[in-house]
Specification:
The chain is mostly helical and 294 residues long. It is 52% helix and 10% strand. It has a 3-stranded antiparallel sheet, covered by helices on one side. Strands 4-5-6 form a 3-stranded antiparallel sheet. α1 crosses α2, α6 (157-166) runs antiparallel to α7 and α7 packs parallel to α11.
Length: 294
């Protein structure tokens, strides 16, 4: 344990909270850090506790209200970044200057955008803390975030061909599906057999919850048919074992591909190629217009 919270001291095999010469046992000295802050929070539940205690309360009661992907991301951010940095502090001792200094530190380390995500998570923790009277204000408000540049990488036709040629068949097909449809990687991972309709491939977009349909082309129909034959579950696009892709597995597969472009760049290429390049997306637009005329 790097640093004990204020008024917490070791004595024998245990840690104690000491206030006005009264020693209150918290936990064993070798207990996980989460247990220490959880017990400390029980004692100081009226707002005098540590920010790590608020984080624990947020994880238990606030975070489950978020989307599943956000829950996973925020839990990792709290564990790896926020708790080691701010966990030992009392909530109202964290100032806006502390937040600004943290953002500057992350930017100088080359992690400016990640720092923005981390402070967004911390802001949610503080908002939850205000709701349970653990703090009186949110120091993240009004602090300028690090500048983020929009990624504009265009994957050439040759680059895509090379990537598809060296990729394992499971990765190759979901990448090709991303180009044929323009769907997000998460939406492709979550596609199930009932999303295969007579008129095309249907997706429920994770970003806004709206349904979108890609009409069939010979390439898309053939691709989906092959993946359904290989799949060992309800998902359409699966890993080497025919099981659902996880985000971490797909990210690892992309890193092993060792290309100078990302999965997201394929979606951007599909959008750009409406009018240029391989032109496959142009068929969808034309089919939509013809259907609208009818």
């Amino acid at each position: 344990m790097k640093k004990l919270p204020k008024n917490v001291y070791p004595k024998g095999p245990s840690l104690y909270y000491v206030r006005k010469n009264k020693w209150t046992r918290l936990c064993r000295i070798d207990a996980p850090e989460e247990e220490l802050h959880r017990e400390l929070w029980k004692i100081l539940a009226k707002g005098a506790g540590t920010l790590s205690g608020v984080m624990d309360e947020y994880i238990e009661n606030g975070l489950p209200k978020k989307a599943m992907s956000t829950q996973r991301d925020y839990a990792n951010i709290i564990k790896r970044q926020l708790r080691p940095t701010f966990g030992h502090m009392r909530p109202d001792d964290v100032s806006s200057q502390d937040i600004a200094v943290y953002l500057e530190h992350r930017e100088r380390k080359g992690h400016g955008p990640a720092g923005n995500r981390e402070i967004s998570c911390l802001s949610s923790v503080f908002n939850h803390g205000m709701r349970i009277r653990a703090c009186s204000y949110n120091p993240c408000y009004g602090v300028r975030r690090n500048t983020e540049k929009e990624r504009t990488r265009y994957v050439t036709d040759q680059e895509l061909r090379v990537g598809l040629r060296v990729a394992h068949v499971s990765l190759r097909r979901i990448l090709w599906a991303a180009y044929l449809t323009g769907f997000r990687q998460k939406d492709l991972r979550l596609l199930i057999r009932s999303d295969v309709l007579p008129e095309g491939l249907r997706v429920r977009q994770s970003k806004d919850g709206k349904h979108e349909l890609r009409q069939w082309t010979d390439s898309l129909r053939r691709l989906v048919r092959k993946e359904l034959e290989r799949s060992q579950c309800q998902r359409i696009f699966t890993n080497r074992s025919g099981q659902p892709w996880s985000l971490s597995a797909l990210q690892s597969a992309m890193r092993r591909l060792n290309m100078d472009w990302t999965f997201h760049d394929i979606r951007a290429k599909a959008d750009s190629d409406h009018e240029t390049g391989l032109g496959l997306m142009r068929r969808y637009n034309r089919a939509r217009r013809l259907k609208a005329v009818k």
